[in-house]
From TrEMBL:
<dbReference type="Pfam" id="PF01546">
    <property type="entry name" value="Peptidase_M20"/>
</dbReference>
<dbReference type="GO" id="GO:0008777">
    <property type="term" value="F:acetylornithine deacetylase activity"/>
</dbReference>
<dbReference type="InterPro" id="IPR010169">
    <property type="entry name" value="AcOrn-deacetyl"/>
</dbReference>
<feature type="domain" description="Peptidase M20 dimerisation">
    <location>
        <begin position="170"/>
        <end position="278"/>
    </location>
</feature>
<dbReference type="InterPro" id="IPR001261">
    <property type="entry name" value="ArgE/DapE_CS"/>
</dbReference>
<keyword id="KW-0170">Cobalt</keyword>
<keyword id="KW-0479">Metal-binding</keyword>
<dbReference type="InterPro" id="IPR011650">
    <property type="entry name" value="Peptidase_M20_dimer"/>
</dbReference>
<keyword id="KW-0055">Arginine biosynthesis</keyword>
<dbReference type="Pfam" id="PF07687">
    <property type="entry name" value="M20_dimer"/>
</dbReference>
<keyword id="KW-0963">Cytoplasm</keyword>
<keyword id="KW-0028">Amino-acid biosynthesis</keyword>
<dbReference type="GO" id="GO:0006526">
    <property type="term" value="P:L-arginine biosynthetic process"/>
</dbReference>
<comment type="similarity">
    <text>Belongs to the peptidase M20A family. ArgE subfamily.</text>
</comment>
<keyword id="KW-0862">Zinc</keyword>
<dbReference type="InterPro" id="IPR002933">
    <property type="entry name" value="Peptidase_M20"/>
</dbReference>
<keyword id="KW-0378">Hydrolase</keyword>
């Protein structure tokens, strides 16, 4: 099958983050097995979605992982000019949810599988396809934990997030959390008889703003934009009516961390401020939504040199968005980002990838196979 034909099949599966993914997993598994790959389906603890790991070549020898996620963000926003789950080709553009982020990479890799299968590989090429990346990389940790039983320690992992097929050596880490504050409702004319949850949560909001300002003064890592860790309040919900004491308020916080900083620790002052509210009679619920570490691959790493040779482009030092790459690196596997498409097209109506970008990525994967022969 050609890459565009495979992409058409993949886009047709509405594998929205947080929903069952059995159909897309079954199709990819059957396709890979038809070309002789060793395929392992790895169900997650949710029970209705799975990771998929496949090997072409001798699994007992160190090789390379090609990693991507099968889930996509929802497509319920307005602005689509065609069905987001039906690939539409027009003037070299291929439109559909996930076309760039990141089913285009999956399609290019799968299109290269027949060539890889026919190549006498001395080192294996592994495919690691995950679920729920768009919910904060929730699926891939379960797969990474199983790698020791699936293959020899890999030489490196290539995470195919859209990068214009230019390798990227570093990205920030991220942590997100949701705080729910519960007080006591009542008529607004008697504030002495209630507990105003919105008033209470302002203590935590003030802490968040102060922490954000403090982080902006360093430490710095110049390869990033901005060159410091950051923190923000992303959502705020509370109250029913202007004359009712609000008994519940909810806020979501996000922190992004430069290399060497655990993003969860950036949220610790906010959690402490929240827990202090319990001493004033409020009920507090703090829930961690997601967390993944930063990626930092040395400029002289063999994996960076390999991707520079495969793409013909000098690797880029860093980007500020995050990927699953940091989780592979934390597990002791060198990782780098390199995939087709443009991240600026992702998570938007009429998301698209260029047909030429698909073919270029397929050529890169086939070149990796020849390097492993």
């Amino acid at each position: 099958m050609q890459a565009i034909e495979i992409l058409e099949r993949l886009v047709g599966f509405p594998s929205v983050v947080g929903t069952p993914n059995g159909e897309i997993v079954a199709w990819i598994r059957h396709y890979l097995q038809s070309h002789g790959a060793i395929v392992t389906e790895l169900p997650g603890p949710e029970g209705d979605r799975s990771n998929l790991f496949a090997t072409i070549g001798p699994k007992e020898t160190p090789g390379y992982i090609l990693s991507g996620h099968m889930d996509v963000v929802p497509a319920a926003e307005g602005g689509w000019t065609s069905d987001p789950f039906r690939l539409r080709a027009e003037a070299g553009r291929l439109y559909g949810r996930g076309a760039t982020d990141m089913k285009g990479f999956l399609a290019a890799v799968l299109a290269a599988v027949p060539a890889l299968a026919e190549t006498p590989l001395r080192r294996p090429v592994h495919l690691a396809f995950s679920y729920d990346e768009e919910a904060g990389c929730r699926g891939v940790p379960h797969m990474i934990a199983r790698l020791p039983e699936l293959c020899a320690t890999p030489l490196g992992a290539i995470i195919g997030e859209p990068s214009g097929l230019r390798a990227i050596r570093a990205h920030k880490g991220k942590a997100a959390a949701r705080l729910t504050v519960k007080g006591r409702s009542g008529h607004s004319s008697r504030p002495d008889q209630g507990l105003n949850a919105i008033h209470a949560i302002t203590d935590v909001l003030a802490c968040a703003r102060a922490e954000a300002e403090r982080l902006a003064s360093g430490p710095f890592e110049p390869v990033f934009e901005p060159p410091y860790s950051s923190l923000q309040v992303g959502t705020l919900k509370g109250g029913q009516a202007v004359n009712i004491i609000p008994d519940t308020c909810e806020a979501e916080f996000e922190a992004r961390a430069i290399s060497g900083v655990d993003p969860i620790t950036l949220l610790a002052p906010l959690r402490a401020a929240a827990e202090a509210l319990s001493r004033r009679g409020f009920q507090i619920e703090w829930r961690e939504l997601s967390a993944y570490p930063a990626l930092s691959l040395a400029a002289d790493a063999p994996l960076a040199a390999l991707l520079g040779e495969l793409t013909g482009i000098e690797p880029l030092a860093a980007v500020s968005y995050g990927t699953e790459a940091g989780l592979f690196q934390r597990a002791g596997i060198d990782a780098i980002i390199c995939g087709p498409g443009d991240i600026g097209r992702a998570h938007k109506p009429d998301e698209f990838i260029l047909a030429g970008e698909l073919l270029a990525c397929q050529a890169m994967v086939e070149a990796l196979g020849r390097r492993c022969a």
